[in-house]
Design brief:
Elements lengths: L2 E4 L4 E4 L13 E3 L21 E8 L9 E6 L5 E6 L2 E7 L5 E4 L10 E8 L25 E6 L2 E11 L7 E10 L5 E11 L4 E4 L3 E5 L4 E9 L14 E9 L8 E9 L4 E4 L2 E4 L2 E2 L2 E5 L13 H14 L4 E4 L6 H10 L2 E5 L9 H18 L5 E5 L9 H14 L4 E3 L14 E4 L13 E5 L13 H19 L4 E6 L5 E2 L10 E2 L12 H7 L10 E3 L16 E5 L3 E6 L2 E6 L14 E3 L15 E7 L2 E8 L7 E6 L3 E2 L1 H4 L4 E9 L12 E7 L2 E4 L4 E2 L4 E8 L4 E8 L6 E7 L1
Parallel strand pairs: 22-23, 22-29, 23-24, 24-25, 25-26, 27-28, 28-29, 40-47
Antiparallel strand pairs: 1-10, 2-3, 2-4, 4-9, 5-8, 5-10, 6-7, 6-9, 11-12, 12-16, 13-14, 13-15, 13-17, 17-18, 19-20, 20-21, 30-31, 32-33, 33-36, 34-35, 34-37, 37-38, 39-41, 41-45, 42-44, 42-46, 43-45, 46-47
The structure holds beta-D-galactopyranose.
Beta-D-galactopyranose binds next to loops.
């Protein structure tokens, strides 16, 4: 039988390139996901992560082999891996974004210790995508995704692709493409059964047992088909997933003594189509509104464990109200994509690369990455399109005809796109996916058409930028989304971008950050985040966000007029101090197409602003004439509290094998809890209990908000983190590690 053993704990690591003779004492003990260096959140150079490091893991086989093959599976390591077992070279893998495996069977020692070593080259290698040119993001080093050990019988299930067809008709059907691989030198025959859930998820449908023979050293693709009439479709509001399993038993064997393999997964029934009149999910027109996501985090680079990956999907869906995310510019963590399936967030996934296309060998890696991406992810209903071009590269019809055809071969069920920034580009794919930085919405030259980036570097904005700039940043996102929503040929727009990210010196604000996010690098909102958030139905929650810091003299000329309020309420009532200014409705004239247009309140400051009392702001949101939510902003201007909150009350050492993390958000706020953007104080932290704080300590806060991460160690217990800053009460938060 198959056994999979997580292999993330008890690694040894050194930031030096050492050989097999180096003593263990030259290493430190680490767990995966692991970053080759913990860095500050900005003001560091990309050279700091560019070195060759060595990982070592001593292990005894957790179970006897019993004739099985044993593989080591890496989900991802940045950038070039060379692995050895007991001094024998297993192989090389170049490229940081797709999984790879080594068959370690021939070098294993059964009843004694084995030593796995990995030489990891994290330099920006010009022979490996995305490098060769300069790139606007960083490729932090490390074995930054999980590793596992996999035992399989000599004949095993190498892959299962679950396809659904015609799910909107009464001729719906399923196809399971099951790839069987025989790695022995004898022909083998097995019995195979497919089981899956449909209708009520509890009812299992089982295929007949089928007999399949596979030649020595060969593969057989077996397809099982089934028509279906009763099932629920995967939708954004009810993203129902069904489970499947494929079992192999010995020919004529039984469940009790003949089991050879069992693999399982999930799938969903949905139809996703980009057309000349926009995008349709399950036959229903849906305007796509989304943001691009880079997978990098402050301090830890790409080495975010499952919990943080899943949290990002939740932030994009629930805090930002998006219905689509683009994994710019590479395949991202499986945990992120799995969460997108579970919560109903559509995904545009693309091959690694950025503007530059290298020589033939480099291009061969493009095709290898494309295959690895599609084979890894084609069972995810959330993914609706494959990006088969290097982002924003120039036309290369030979290469992109190849990537496009290959994508269709690997997955005939999905459309392709290829992201470019000029409309005259040869249109080889199914969907013209276009980065439109005109600060407008250009009429499409080609359809189906999807805007894959806008804004970004055209209007970089920090959480501590002056109110007018932060407001204009929000309005730019709102104008583009509004305009695309009114354009009948455009499927949607995916803005640049969700979160600020670290970059090279050639980009960004000089401190090695691109401040292009609607949220900062800690995933905390700027005003532009409210544009997206407020497009959710009030049934999700009433949203009321004022685009102001409520100061008297920060904007040119002073005041806060006009006041934009991003809200899904029908009316907003405004009070300043005790004075009531009236009730206001959404500005449909400026924003005719957004589902929830913001409210614009004008004229309350003029003409004699300075002589008016400067009272606290209170806004009340109404739906159906009922007050459903309100917000208040103070006038003190300086902080009256330091706050500290953990995203999770509990971390788990067992399931995550020692690397679990949660975010600790801290803010300097007014008496109503609003962050104060110009409050730059030093905050110091203390930790008590079996956990580790990741991040700068003390931390010089900018923009009134920031975050650290709490990482579990191998021990269970209670962790208390205390934060303090001059002149304000000390605060603490407790997280249980179980
Ligand atoms: C685009 C590019 C993105 C990012 C963005 C900044 O041209 O595709 O990766 O650099 O510009 O606005």
């Amino acid at each position: 039988m198959r056994t999979i053993v997580p292999f993330n704990d008890n690694w040894l690591y050194t930031s030096a390139d050492v050989d097999h003779n180096a003593p263990d004492s030259a290493f430190e003990r680490v767990a995966l996901p692991h970053t080759n260096i913990v860095l500050p959140h900005h003001n560091f150079d990309n050279m700091e992560y560019q070195f060759v490091s060595t990982y070592r893991k001593r292990f005894r086989l957790p179970e006897a082999r019993d004739g099985r093959r044993v593989f080591i599976d890496f989900e991802g390591a940045m950038t070039a891996t060379t692995a050895y077992l007991n001094g024998h070279k297993l192989g090389d893998h170049g490229g940081g974004y797709v999984p790879f495996s080594f068959d370690i069977t021939d070098y294993l020692i059964d009843n004694a210790e084995n030593v796995l070593s990995v030489r990891l080259d994290s330099t920006e290698r010009g022979d490996i995508p995305p490098y060769g040119g300069i790139v606007d993001y960083l490729t932090f080093g490390g074995i930054y995704r999980e590793v596992s050990l996999r035992y399989v019988e000599p004949l095993y299930v190498a892959d299962v692709f679950v396809k659904t067809f015609d799910v909107l008709t009464d001729k719906a059907r399923l196809e399971f493409d099951i790839l069987l691989r025989n790695v022995s030198n004898a022909p083998r025959t097995v019995s195979l059964q497919v089981t899956f859930a449909a209708e009520e998820a509890s009812r299992m449908i089982e295929s007949e047992w089928l007999t399949v023979s596979v030649p020595p050293g060969g593969e057989v693709l077996h397809t099982y088909e089934k028509s279906l009439r009763i099932f629920k479709r995967w939708t954004l509001d009810d993203p129902i997933l069904y489970g499947w399993e494929v079992d192999l038993v010995k020919e004529g064997g039984s469940w009790i003594d003949g089991k050879l393999d069992n693999v399982m997964g999930s799938f969903g029934f949905r139809e996703a189509r980009f057309t000349d009149t926009g995008f349709y999910l399950n036959g229903q027109h849906l305007k796509l509104m989304g943001l691009n996501r880079h997978q990098t985090y402050p301090f830890i680079g790409g080495a975010a464990p499952a919990r943080l990956q899943r949290k990002d999907a939740d932030i994009i869906k629930y805090e930002l109200g998006c219905n689509i995310v683009r994994t710019s510019h590479y395949p991202q963590s499986k945990h992120f994509i799995e969460r997108c399936d579970e919560i109903g967030l559509l995904v545009f996934e693309e091959i690694p690369g950025w503007q530059h296309v290298g020589d033939e060998d480099w291009q061969a890696l493009n095709l290898r990455d494309l295959e690895a991406m599609i084979v890894r992810d084609r069972n995810h209903p959330s993914i609706v399109i494959w990006g088969v071009r290097v982002n924003e590269s120039m036309d290369n019809d030979v290469l992109y005809a190849k990537t496009n055809a290959f994508a269709h071969k690997l997955d005939p069920t999905r459309q392709t796109g290829g992201v470019r920034f000029f409309q005259e580009s040869s249109f080889l794919e199914d969907v013209f996916t276009f980065n439109d930085f005109s600060n407008d919405v250009q009429d499409p030259l080609h359809t189906p058409h999807l805007i894959t980036e806008f804004n970004g570097h055209m209007f970089s904005t920090k959480t501590w930028d002056q109110e007018e700039r932060a407001m204009e940043h929000a309005l730019r996102h709102a104008r583009i989304q509004d305009k695309q929503m009114g354009h009948p040929q455009i499927s949607g727009a995916i803005g640049w971008c969700a979160f600020d990210y670290n970059t090279h010196r050639e980009f960004g604000s000089g401190d090695r950050v691109c401040y292009h996010g609607v949220m900062d690098t800690f995933r905390l909102p700027k005003f532009a985040a409210y544009v997206y958030e407020s497009q959710q139905s009030p049934d999700v929650r009433p949203i009321l966000r004022a685009v102001t810091y409520w100061t008297r003299g920060d904007r040119s000329v002073g005041g806060a007029d006009p006041l934009w309020v991003f809200t899904n309420c029908e009316e907003v009532e405004m009070f300043v101090g005790k004075e009531r200014f009236g009730r206001f409705t959404p500005d449909r004239e400026t924003f005719p197409n957004l589902p929830y247009a913001p409210v614009q309140i004008k004229g309350f400051d003029a003409p004699a602003m300075w002589s008016r009392p400067y009272g606290e702001l209170r806004l009340v949101g109404y739906i159906g004439g009922e007050a459903v939510t309100e917000l208040q902003m103070g006038t003190e201007g300086f902080p009256i509290a330091l706050t500290l909150e953990a995203d999770d009350d509990e971390l788990n050492v067992e399931s995550a094998e020692g690397t679990d993390m949660t975010r600790l958000v801290f803010k300097l706020v007014d008496k109503f809890g609003n962050r104060l953007p110009y409050t730059n104080q030093v905050v110091s932290f203390e930790i008590d209990g079996p956990g580790e704080l990741i991040g700068e300590n003390p931390f010089a806060i900018m923009g009134g908000q920031a975050a650290l991460y709490l990482k579990s160690t191998r021990e269970a217990g209670t962790v208390t983190v205390t934060a303090s800053t001059p002149r304000l009460p000390t605060v603490s938060v407790t997280v249980t590690i179980s």
